[in-house]
Design a protein that fits this description.
The complex is a heterotrimer of chains A (299), B (273) and C (384). Chain B is 78% helix and 0% strand. Chain B is mainly α and 273 residues long. The chains are: A mainly alpha (299), B mainly alpha (273), C alpha+beta (384).
C-alpha cells in the first residue's frame, strides 16, 4: 500500500485533494472578487477619503447623498440609455446575419470585416470616433458637406443633447458585427434537415425564418442581450476616451462618476456607494438570466 | 439553399454595409498619413497627396515606453490567467469532488462582476503590496480577474474530453497530472490557443486597470494613448497614428489567427456571459 | 397517388471526381412500396433527395405520375414544394419550437388551407397514428417512437402523391422498430400509398417491400421482389447482402469425369446436372457455390441430398431454433438448426439439397441461371 502510494506520487495525492491544486486560483478569485466586493460594501458605509488612514462608520449617509444628487440621476439615466444599443444591435445584427446566411461564396470575408471593430480596443475606437465626430474637421460632417447634406451636420459628441446618441451609434458600430456573428451561429445551428423538410412542405423562405429559425434563436438573442448589457453597465473605456463624461455631466455613466469620485476627487466612500449601486443593478439584471440559463441547462 | 432575395442584391448590400463599417478605420488611416496642413485642406477620407510617416514617428515617440509596458503586462496577465484558469477548468470538468458545483457557480458569477465594484479594494491592496505603478501590480489584477472567464471557457472545452477516457486513465494508474499533460492538453491544443488569444486581446485592449494602478513608469499603451489625446488635442495625424499603432497587435492576430478569435468570442458568449 | 420513374439518373460531385449515382433507372408502380437498399455510401439517399427535388442531378430524368419533375435534357426542374411529395427524415426534422399539433399543421398552413380543414386533417392523422393525446406536447417531451410517429404524421397529413422515407426507423431500438415497421406497412396498404423507402437493413427491405432496388457504389446491382432477390440473387454481392445469417460460400471448380460434368468443392463433389443449372459450364471454370444457412438441414429432403459431416464449433441459440457454426474440413459455414440439442465439439450430419445451391461464375461473380428460373425470368424482362 505504501509502495503504491510512493509510485503514484504527489500527483495522486493532490488528485484526492482538489482544493490544494485550486488554492491559488480560487484564493485569488476569492480575495479579489468576493473579498473586494465585501470590502467595497463596507467602505460605502464609512466616511473614508482614501488618503487618510482613519475613518468612521457613516451609516447610509453616502447613499442618501447619492440619491439626492443630480449628477447621479444623470449617470443612472445615461447608463440605462446605453441599453438602447441592445435592440438596435439585435435588429442590425439579425439583418446582417440573414444576409451572411444566403449561401454565397465569400461571405466569410464580409463577416470578418464586420466583426473587426469588435476586436479593437475601446481606446482605439474612442479616439477614432472623436475624429469621426469632430464638428469642424471630422469625417462625418465632412462627408455630409460633400454629399450636399450640410444642414444635417451636427455637434455630435460635443453637444449635451446628442452626446449619448452619438455614443450609442458608435457602440452599435462596434457591437453589431458581434451580434451578427452570434445570431449567424444561431441560424446555422438550426439543423439543415428541418429547413429541407420545411421547403418540401411548401414553406416560403420568409415563413421558414419566421416560424422555424427565429423561434430557435432565443439562446443567441439572450447571449447578445447579456453581453451588451454587461458592457452598458460597466461602460467606461469608450466614453472616457471620447468625452471624459462631458460636455459637462452630459455623458456621465455610473462607472464614469464612480471613477471620478474615487480617483479624481478621492471621495472613496462616496465612490464605493456608487459602485455598490452599480453592483446591485447588475445583480438585478443578471440573476434572472443566470436562473434562466440554469433552467435551460437542466432541461 | 436558394436565396431569399437575389444574390446580386445581397452582395451589393453587404458591400455597401461593409464599406460603411470600415469608413471610420479608413478615415483614421488616411489622416494618420497626412500633415497638419493637409488635414485642414483635404477631405478626411481622401488619400493623402504626399503620405508622410511623421504622424507615426510622433506617436511612436510618445508611446514607445508604454507599448513595451503593454507587451509585458499582456504577456504576464495572459499566461497568469490562462494558466490558473486551465487548472480550474481541468479539475472542474474532469474530476468531480464535493462542492464542485458551488465552486463553478462562484467562478462563473465572477465574469459578471462590474470592475468598479472592486476598484477601491484593488487599489488599496496593490498599494499595500507596494506594487502601485509597477508592471507586477497590473499583471496581478489581470490575472485575478481573468481567471473566472478562462476557467469557465476551459471547463467548457475540457468537458468535451470523453469521461470514459478519464476513467480509463485513472484505472490504468495514470496520475491526473500525467493524464493532463499527456492526453488532455495535447488533444485540446485548439482550445488553449483560442483562450490564449482571447485573453491576449482582452488584456491588450484594456484601459481601466492601467489607469488606476499604473503610473508614469508602468502605464500601458491604452493609458498613454488616452493621455496623448488629452495633450495633443489638435494633432489628429499623431492621434490617429497612435490609435492604429495600438491596434497593430490585434490586427495581426485578427488577420492571421482570426479563426481562433472568433471561436473565443463564441465560447466566451456561449459558456457564461 | 402516383407512379415514379427514374431514368438514367447521374449525380457527381467535385466536378465529376466523385460519382454518387451512376446512371440509375427504375420505376415504382402506383401504390407500391419500393425499398432502395444498399450499404452506406451507395447513393440511395442521394436518389431520394433527387426525387424530392432537394438535389439537382448532374443528368437524368424523374417522372412523378404523368409529370416530368426533373429533366436535365428538357431543362425542367420543378421546385421541391411543388412536387407534392412528402419526406420522412431519419432525424425526424420536427420543429422543436412547435407543438405536435403545430408541427402537423405546418405543411397545411403553408398551403393556406382553411383552419377548419387543417384541424380536421390533423385530427384524423393523429387518430390514425394513435397520437391524439400527444398533440399539445413539444418534440423534446416525446420518446423516440412518438417522434417517429409525428414525423410520419407530418407526411401523411399532406396527402401527397408519393412518400419518401429516409431510414425512418434508423433511430429506434430493435423492438420498436419491428412494431413501427408493421404499422407502416399497414398504413401503406390502407392508403394504397406509393412509398419509396431508403434503408441499409435487408430485413426491413424484405419485410416491407413490394420491390427492392439494391444498390452498390451508385449502381443498381439487382431489382425485383423480395422473393426474387432472395431466391435468385443476380450476383455474389446480392447473394451476400440479402438474407440473415448471410449465405455460405465455397469455391469450386468444374471438372469432367467419365464424360460427366462435376463441380468439385473440396469437401464435396456434385454433378452439375443435380444442381439444375440451365447451361453447361466449360471444364476448368472456377465457380463460387452459395448455400443459405436455412437450406442446410438436419434431415434429408430428397434422395439427391449431399451429406456433410461436420464438427460443431459454436452455437447461437435463438430460442426456438439456433444458428450453428460448423467446420467441415477447412470449410466453415453456418446452418439454421431446428433439431435437438448440440454441443460444441460434437459431430453432426447435415444435409444439403443440391437444387438449393446457387452457382456463380468467377471472377465476375454472376449467377448461373437454373432451369426453374426460366418462366419467372422472362416475366421479369417483360416489365418495362
Amino acid at each position: 500500500m505504501s509502495q503504491n502510494f510512493r509510485r503514484k506520487g504527489i500527483g495522486h495525492w493532490l488528485s484526492r485533494h482538489p482544493f490544494i491544486i485550486l488554492a491559488l486560483p480560487l484564493g485569488l478569485v476569492g480575495y479579489f472578487v468576493y473579498g473586494g466586493m465585501f470590502w467595497n460594501a463596507w467602505v460605502s458605509f464609512t466616511n473614508w477619503r482614501g488618503l487618510t488612514p482613519t475613518y468612521a462608520f457613516y451609516g447610509f449617509q453616502n447613499y442618501s447623498r447619492l440619491f439626492g444628487s443630480a449628477v447621479f440621476a444623470v449617470a443612472l439615466k445615461n447608463t440605462l440609455l446605453l441599453f438602447l444599443t441592445i435592440p438596435v444591435c439585435i435588429v442590425v445584427g439579425f439583418i446582417l446575419a440573414v444576409l451572411l446566411d444566403q449561401n454565397i461564396r465569400g461571405t466569410g470575408i464580409f463577416r470578418n470585416l464586420l466583426l473587426l471593430p469588435y476586436a479593437l480596443s475601446f481606446v482605439v475606437t474612442g479616439t477614432i470616433w472623436a475624429w469621426m465626430y469632430n464638428p469642424s474637421k471630422g469625417i462625418l460632417n465632412a462627408l455630409l458637406r460633400q454629399i450636399g447634406l450640410a444642414r444635417w451636420q451636427g455637434m455630435w459628441h460635443t453637444s449635451q443633447e446628442t452626446v449619448m446618441y452619438a455614443i450609442v451609434l458608435a457602440l452599435v458600430w462596434q457591437f453589431s458585427g458581434y451580434a451578427a456573428l452570434v445570431l449567424l451561429a444561431g441560424i446555422r445551428s438550426v439543423p439543415e434537415v428541418q429547413i429541407k423538410a420545411a421547403l418540401l412542405e411548401g414553406a416560403t423562405r420568409f415563413r421558414i425564418y419566421r416560424k422555424i429559425i427565429v423561434p430557435q434563436l432565443k439562446g443567441a438573442v439572450m447571449t447578445v442581450v447579456i453581453v451588451i448589457m454587461m458592457y452598458a453597465l460597466r461602460a467606461f473605456d469608450f466614453i472616457w476616451v471620447l468625452t471624459g463624461g462631458g460636455p459637462g455631466y452630459a455623458s456621465h455613466t455610473l462607472s464614469i462618476m464612480m471613477y471620478k469620485e474615487a480617483f479624481q476627487a478621492t471621495r472613496f466612500a462616496y465612490a464605493a456607494a456608487i459602485a455598490n449601486v452599480l453592483l446591485g443593478l447588475t445583480l438585478i439584471l443578471v440573476l434572472p438570466y443566470l436562473y434562466w440559463m440554469h433552467r435551460r441547462a437542466g432541461q | 439553399m436558394s436565396t431569399l432575395v437575389g444574390r446580386g442584391l445581397v452582395v451589393t448590400v453587404l458591400v455597401v454595409v461593409t464599406l460603411l463599417y470600415l469608413l471610420p478605420l479608413w478615415g483614421a488611416f488616411t489622416t494618420s498619413l497626412k500633415t497638419d496642413e493637409e488635414i485642414d485642406l483635404t477631405s478626411p477620407i481622401a488619400w493623402p497627396q504626399r503620405p508622410t510617416a511623421s504622424g507615426y514617428i510622433g506617436a511612436f515617440n510618445h508611446l514607445k515606453r508604454a507599448l513595451l509596458n503593454s507587451v509585458l503586462i499582456t504577456v504576464g496577465g495572459t499566461f497568469g490567467s490562462v494558466g490558473l484558469g486551465a487548472i480550474c477548468g481541468y479539475v472542474l470538468a474532469l474530476h468531480s469532488f464535493p462542492g464542485a458545483n458551488l465552486v463553478f457557480l462562484l467562478l462563473a458569477a465572477g465574469i459578471f462582476l462590474p470592475f468598479q465594484a472592486i476598484l477601491i479594494p484593488l487599489f488599496q491592496t496593490v498599494r499595500a503590496l507596494r506594487l502601485y505603478d509597477t508592471i507586477g501590480g497590473i499583471v496581478l489584477a489581470h490575472t485575478a480577474y481573468g481567471i473566472p472567464m478562462c476557467a469557465v471557457m476551459f471547463k467548457t472545452f475540457y468537458s468535451e474530453v470523453p469521461k470514459a477516457l478519464v476513467r480509463q486513465a485513472l484505472t490504468d494508474g495514470s496520475s491526473p497530472w500525467r493524464f493532463y499533460w499527456r492526453v488532455v492538453l495535447p488533444s485540446t491544443k485548439l482550445a488553449t490557443v483560442t483562450i490564449l488569444i482571447f485573453q491576449f486581446t482582452s488584456i491588450w485592449n484594456e484601459l481601466l486597470f492601467g489607469l488606476v494602478l499604473g503610473g508614469p513608469r508602468s502605464m500601458p499603451a491604452t493609458v498613454a494613448l488616452n493621455n496623448l489625446v488629452g495633450t495633443l488635442a489638435a494633432q489628429w495625424n499623431i492621434q490617429m497614428a497612435g490609435s492604429l499603432l495600438l491596434a497593430v497587435p490585434v490586427l495581426i492576430v485578427y488577420a492571421f489567427l482570426g479563426r481562433y478569435l472568433v471561436r473565443g468570442y463564441m465560447a466566451g458568449a456561449v459558456t457564461a456571459v | 397517388m402516383a407512379s415514379v420513374t427514374v431514368k438514367n439518373l447521374f449525380v457527381s460531385y467535385h466536378r465529376g471526381r466523385t460519382i454518387a449515382v451512376d446512371h440509375v433507372s427504375f420505376a415504382v408502380e402506383d401504390g407500391k412500396f419500393c425499398v432502395l437498399l444498399g450499404p452506406s455510401g451507395c447513393g440511395k439517399t442521394t436518389i431520394l433527395h433527387c426525387i424530392a427535388g432537394l438535389i439537382r442531378p448532374t443528368s437524368g430524368e424523374i417522372i412523378i405520375g404523368e409529370r416530368v419533375v426533373t429533366s436535365t435534357e428538357k431543362n425542367i426542374f420543378v421546385r421541391p414544394q411543388e412536387r407534392n411529395v412528402a419526406m420522412v427524415f431519419q432525424e425526424y426534422a420536427l420543429y422543436p419550437n412547435l407543438t405536435v399539433r403545430e408541427n402537423l399543421a405546418f405543411p397545411l398552413e403553408c398551403q393556406r388551407l382553411p383552419k377548419k380543414e387543417i384541424a380536421a386533417r390533423v385530427q384524423s392523422v393523429a387518430e390514425l397514428l394513435g397520437i391524439t393525446d400527444l398533440l399539445h406536447r413539444r418534440p423534446a417531451q416525446l420518446s423516440g417512437g412518438q417522434r417517429q410517429r409525428v414525423a410520419l404524421g407530418r407526411a401523411l397529413v399532406r396527402q401527397p402523391t408519393v412518400f419518401l422515407l429516409d431510414e425512418p426507423l434508423g433511430n429506434l431500438d430493435a423492438q420498436l422498430r419491428v412494431q413501427v415497421r408493421y404499422e407502416l406497412k399497414r398504413i401503406q396498404r390502407q392508403l394504397r400509398a406509393t412509398m419509396i423507402y431508403v434503408t441499409h437493413d435487408q430485413t426491413e427491405a424484405l419485410t416491407l417491400a413490394d420491390k427492392i432496388v439494391l444498390l452498390r457504389s451508385g449502381k443498381i446491382e439487382q431489382e425485383g421482389s423480395p422473393q426474387e432477390m432472395y431466391e435468385k440473387p443476380a450476383n455474389l454481392f446480392v447473394a451476400g447482402f440479402i438474407g440473415s445469417p448471410p449465405m455460405n460460400f465455397i469455391e469450386g471448380q468444374v471438372l469432367t469425369c467419365e464424360g460427366m460434368l462435376l463441380i468439385d468443392a473440396g469437401i464435396f463433389k456434385v454433378r452439375a446436372e443435380a444442381l439444375g443449372i440451365a447451361k453447361n459450364l466449360a471444364p476448368g471454370t472456377k465457380v463460387m457455390l452459395g448455400v443459405r444457412p436455412a437450406d442446410i438441414n438436419a434431415r434429408p429432403s430428397s434422395p439427391q441430398d449431399l451429406l456433410l459431416p461436420a464438427i460443431v464449433d459454436l452455437l447461437e441459440p435463438l430460442g426456438d431454433s439456433a444458428v450453428v457454426h460448423v467446420l467441415s474440413g477447412n470449410f466453415k459455414f453456418t446452418a439454421k438448426w431446428e433439431g435437438g440439442s448440440l454441443k460444441p465439439g460434437g459431430l453432426v450430419s447435415l444435409f444439403l439439397n443440391p437444387r438449393k445451391i446457387h452457382v456463380f461464375t468467377l471472377p465476375d461473380g454472376m449467377r448461373v441461371s437454373k432451369i426453374e428460373d426460366g418462366a419467372a425470368g422472362r416475366a421479369e424482362e417483360a416489365f418495362p
